[in-house]
Each structure stands twice: as C-alpha cells, then as structure tokens.
Amino acid sequence: MPKKIVYFIIFKFSRNKYWAFTQMGKNSKIINKTKGLLFYKFLGTGGRNGFSLWPDWSTYALLTTWENEEDAKKFINKGEIISLYRQKAKSIRLLTLEPFKSHGKWDGINPFESNNSNTILEKKKIAIITRATLNWSKLFAFWKSVPHSSTAIKEAKGVLYYKGIGELPFIQQATISIWNSLDDVLSFAYNSKKHADIIKKTRKEKWYKEELFSRFIILEDKQIS
Question: What does residue 94 show for φ and ψ, rounded to 5 degrees?
C-alpha cells in the first residue's frame, strides 16, 4: 500500500465569519474535481474549550487524504479553494500527517489505512483523530458525558492542542488532538481513569453506530497564511 499524505487545515477568522459558515456546503463541486484527492471533509468546530454543543464560529477545518505528495502540494500552493481562504481567513494552519495506525470506518471506509510498519515514532509529535456517528437514542448520554471527557484530556500530560470537530451538529462528531509524543498518548489512553470510564460506557451503552480512531505522525506543522 503506498504512503498516503493527510492534510488537516485549520482556518481562523476574525472577520468574514458568516462567509466561512456559508462555505461549508459550497465547496464540494470545486474540490471533487481535484486530482489525487482520495477523501475530504469540511468540518465545523466546537466552542468554549473545544468540546461544546455551541459552535466556534471563528474556526473551521478541512481534512484531506491524498494519493501522492505532488497533488497534495499543488492543492495547497495553487488550488482554488485554498487561494480563496487565503483572502478571507485571519490565519491558516497546515498539519501534514502520516497515518501509522487506524481502525474503524468513516462513511463506510477507512481513509487513513496504512501499512507503514517501519515508521520511526521516537521524538515525533503525534496527532489523533477520532470520529463517530451517534445513535439517535444515545445523544443525551453522549453530550452529558462531554464535560467529563473534556476535563480528562485537558488534564492529560503532553497534550498540546485539542478541538472538537464535526460534519453535522449533535449527530456526527469528531476530535483532533496533538501530543508531544506517543508515550504521552499511551499514558493517557491506559492510565487516565476518566478516559477509561468513558470508553467503558461507550462500549457498554453502544453510543456509536460508526466510529474511527486514527494515529498520525506530524511531518510538518506550519502557518501558510
């Protein structure tokens, strides 16, 4: 399986917030024509501490998976969509990611599958993306648990950034988090009681009808606008 390139792009707005909101449903026709693009999602984000029912109207994201690095870079440097956002956004942060472990489905597929078993993980910053489609009957239980989950990750050692993201309010939810090392990720996953309690409840009560969990090496993290 060839190496995939994943871009996670964060757009921040101080003005043009209404414009940014309207773009969520407008860019599919343009991006669908992009050579080398395997998967994409335009995403809104959660307000307050990142995990909230109330949106963050100043922050949006675009997640993409690419067949090769050449087409990915062309999209960033010359693509119509990025060019438009450069004119409107206060800042654009580009995370270049290499998936090394991923399981589950997103809209019926796993867009981050990788066989890069020889990837060197030492002294590398790590990104985690989780995503789930909630069962309608479990919405209340899920959102009731969100403050507990938010506190758990906020207190975690080595977490550098975290944000709730999603395609549809309430029902399709995702998160991205950035960690100083894989050791910090594993320590949180296996030693945090709050995190463990949430995972147990998720499984026992069957909150999700589709879910995905993916780990990535951060190859590059930079501002492009």
Answer: -115, 120
